[in-house]
Amino acid sequence: xxxxVLHSAVPPEAPPDEQDVLVQARCIGEALERLGWDVVxxxxxxxxxxxxxxxxxxxxxxxxxxxxxxxxxxxxxHTAPALLDAEGIPYTGCPTEAVFCxxxxxxxxxxxxxxxxxxxxxxxxxxxxxxxxARKNLVIVKPVWEDASVGIDQxxxxxxxxxxxxxxxxxxxxxxxGPAGFFAERxxxxxEFNLALLARPGGVDVLPVAEMCxxxxxxDRHRIVDYEAKWAEGSFAERHTVRSFSPAQEDGPLVExxxxxxxxxxxxxxxxxxxxxxxxxxxxxxxxxxEVNANxxxxxxxxxMAAARQAGLDMDAVVHRLVEDALAPRPFRSNLVxxxxxxxxxxxxxxxxxxxxxxxxxxxxxxxxEDAVERMTAETGFFNGEEIAVARDLARQxxxxxxxxxxxxxxxxEKDGRVVGYTCYGPILGxxxxxxxxxxxxxPAWQGRGIGKILLRAxxxxxxxxxxxxxxxETSSRLLYETTRQFYLHAGYAQxxxxxxxxxxxxxKMIYCKTLVAAA
Length: 520
Fold this sequence. Notes:
Elements lengths: L1 E7 L7 H19 L3 E7 L3 H9 L5 E5 L12 H9 L8 H8 L1 H10 L7 E2 L14 E6 L13 E3 L3 H15 L4 E5 L4 E10 L2 E4 L3 E5 L12 H5 L4 H5 E4 L7 H18 L4 E8 L5 E8 L8 H8 L4 H13 L22 H4 L5 E4 L6 H11 L5 H17 L1 H4 L2 E7 L2 E10 L6 E9 L8 H15 L4 E7 L5 H9 L3 E11 L2 E9 L5
Parallel strand pairs: 1-2, 1-3, 17-18
Antiparallel strand pairs: 4-7, 5-6, 5-7, 8-9, 8-10, 8-12, 10-11, 12-13, 14-15, 15-16, 16-17, 18-20, 19-20
Helix pairs in contact: 1-11, 13-14
């Protein structure tokens, strides 16, 4: 059996954060050899044609993907798994979509916010003026694409009340990462935790929780794991930033909360193999996800392996688990998870369907459902050809890309094996727990029996459990839609806006909203 350890190509003059991947490659290669594999270490280059030809002629069985940067930049790290996907080569770690979505830190934060996962507020200085909160709190200036604390030092944390410090930080970030390559985030001046996750057959394990303790940090030094703490051996920050696996007894509920959030990130982003989730916890005990790290560092002295050793796993055991996960058979689906755990509530739908014997609800789509969605949407007589095509396309996107990627979540009502209704909803990106309810459609032969109400209740329940706080619905002002408008009013929705002549002259867009109470 042949394994290729694919790693970033590192020039001799590269900084220590890039050189570290060579340590990882060597240690993992040695572990694979101990496990009986024939091992080849292969640097990854941006010439994808040449890489493809090389991989095709190697006779390999699996790739251990350690590509963190391409030509010194994290911006192209997703091209390695993308190439492996295109070639159909099994590989360890997270899939292409997860690597891309988590590597772009602002995109990751938008996803977290849309899914109701707490993350510090942020803004992009190039695109928008500083919001009010930024003028009242410390901020930290961070790169969009880079990991390993690249670009992070004490001067990256500042108060915008000091214009000179702000201008200096922005100027430096612009020079290092480009005009659109950085952002500013609210600095959470609290405790920092790392949670490592490792796949196992049928699931994922959360390894022992690590707290980064900042010993001897005075008021003139911000408590952050900056570049110096990670890479400047012998420096004050490196010697006094200490990893601890001994949580206090009173931290039990916090550890449980962090573990639940880490699992939620694993499911929402469709992580695979292994990952690390970084948190800050404020003085009131509220946790915030700082970063979702797909394929984190596996060097013996890195945080992931430290957590693995606490769980009784050495390098050989970790590598065995990663290869086992890479080679496990998988049904065809999007690599980014189709049904995040917070949306998997089919077991709870039975109470909603009890009033109609034989009726069931499901939240996963089958290939035949695209025809069913198109048929029902057309047969209602409410929608034109373009709208019918859109409904079918949303179902196709949700099924093939996965709901988490497409942003379109479906719940289907089924009676005796026939789909008799559906609803489609999704998070509104860039908002705090706001969702759109796009469609509720019931087969005309089954209208008037309460199926629409059942679908609406099921969607509201799923949205609430996903952290949704408000649901928005849009419909037409035409007389044809009077029953639709009354349906939402009776369900507790209030009209919040009307956009005149939106669809056509004298055909206004009517916008309704419902505020959800918190999930029990």
